[in-house]
Design goal:
This protein is α/β, with parallel strands linked by helices. The chain has one domain: TIM Barrel, CATH 3.20.20.70. It contains 16 helices and eleven strands. A four-stranded mixed β-sheet has the order 9-1-10-11, covered by helices on one side. A four-stranded parallel β-sheet has the order 5-6-7-8. α3 packs across α12, α4 runs parallel beside α5 and α10 packs parallel to α12. The structure holds ligand V47. Ligand V47 binds next to β6, β7 and α15.
Length: about 375
């Protein structure tokens, strides 16, 4: 059996960890050791600065043909609470965001059966016409594949047309968990893991940066998580296009997974911190930004995760629908002041970043 101390030594010597090392880490209950190791690797690679972004999320529609078993956000066209925002309604939200001085819009929706591809191009063009300096991070790889299907264009053409219309980067959603057998149960109507990766590779070749997520705490095993992270590490060696890894804590309320009795609980704090620490240990030097999406971890655990390999706390968000449809108890927005307080009280240096991780402003320094 692999000893966790040996894996730690290997990691500290800068040796690349393999799958079995990863399994040993993820199977370990020695959270303090994992945390200390992740913290040391984080300190060596990115230092004490913890970044955040001033952003606003916009979910343009909840009407979706994909119907993933983990999702509580989607609706059928005829459901009473189904919605699709018009371009004018989207612009109203964009202007609200503009007034808050956000630098980033995070725009994702679903697989809408009727909207033409031109709707998405028009959306980007209208935003950019009024706010040429705002960064638009929009459309998951799953949406990109869907746009390619509805437009009859290749993924590359779709991405190029969106870039021409003002797309700045891709968010990391839709990755879920790469195990294809599980995906057949969880999201059979959506992009496969392999396709997700291929779309990201194409995007990176076109010069777009992207993030990568992993949805965890549902039916996956600890080994599935490790394999997911290692697939990202291998892809990153070639493309270098992933800017951040964001483990997303599964919320079961109102989902098929809960209704079918396949998931009854949510990942515990222990499990969440362990997953962050293992992500840092396996990805350090490859994807150096490990982000806590506080909407899904909760604010307090997000703050503690800063001792478990995390160096980035997402942003102001303003409006969040996906996790809240599934029972998230967090607020939907966090002020810049609160982000700064969480970070500095943890003894770290808060810094506002752009979407592409340039530092805009460093705040005061740690206590
Ligand atoms: O892909 C869906 C997840 C993702 C649930 O790249 C759920 O900057 C928990 O990707 N419980 C969308 N999670 C969110 C996302 C994201 C968020 C913040 C920042 C970035 C970024 C990306 O939400 C989906 C899916 O994996 N999700 N349902 C649920 N019940």
């Amino acid at each position: 059996m692999i000893k966790i101390g040996d894996v730690a030594e290997k990691a500290l010597n800068g040796e690349e960890l393999n799958k079995k090392d990863g399994y040993a880490l993820m199977r370990s209950d020695n959270l303090l050791l994992l945390g200390a190791l992740a913290d040391e690797l984080r300190r060596n690679s990115v230092g004490d600065v913890v970044t955040f972004v001033l952003n606003r999320h916009i979910n343009y529609t909840n009407i979706c043909t994909s119907k993933c078993a983990f999702c509580a956000f989607y609706r059928d066209k005829n459901d009473p609470d189904a919605y699709t925002l018009s371009l004018d309604e989207i612009m109203k939200k964009v202007r609200e965001a503009g007034a808050l001085n956000v630098t980033e819009l995070h725009i994702v929706g679903s697989h809408h059966p009727d909207l033409p591809f031109e709707f998405y191009e028009d959306m980007l063009r209208r935003i950019k016409r009024e706010y040429p300096n705002i960064h638009i991070k929009a459309f998951t790889a799953a949406e990109i594949k869907y746009f390619s299907e509805i437009s009859g264009s290749s993924v590359k053409e779709v991405l190029q047309r969106l870039i021409d219309a003002g797309l700045g980067s891709l968010p990391g959603g839709g990755a879920e968990i790469f195990n294809e057998k599980l995906r057949k149960k969880l999201c059979p109507n959506k992009v496969s893991g392999k396709e997700w990766m291929r779309i990201m590779k194409t995007a990176h070749l076109l010069g777009l940066k992207s993030n990568a997520t992993m949805l965890f705490g549902h039916v996956e095993t600890p080994e599935d998580r490790v394999e997911h992270m290692l697939k990202l590490r291998e892809a990153q060696k070639k493309s270098k296009g992933f800017q951040a890894f964001i483990p997303l804590v599964f919320h079961p309320q109102n989902t098929q997974l809960l209704k079918m009795g396949l998931v009854k609980t949510q990942a515990t704090g222990f499990d969440v911190l362990k997953t962050f620490a293992v992500a840092r240990i396996l990805l350090n030097g490859y994807i150096n930004n490990i982000r806590a999406y506080w909407i899904m971890t909760g604010k307090k655990l997000a703050q503690i995760s800063l001792n478990y390999g995390v160096n980035d706390l997402d942003g102001t968000v303003v409006e969040e629908r996906i996790a809240h449809a599934a029972g998230a108890a967090t607020e939907e927005r966090m002020s810049k002041e609160e982000l700064i307080r969480l970070i500095s009280e943890a003894g770290r240096t808060p810094a506002q970043r752009t979407t592409t991780y340039e530092i805009l402003k460093i705040y005061g320094g740690a206590k």
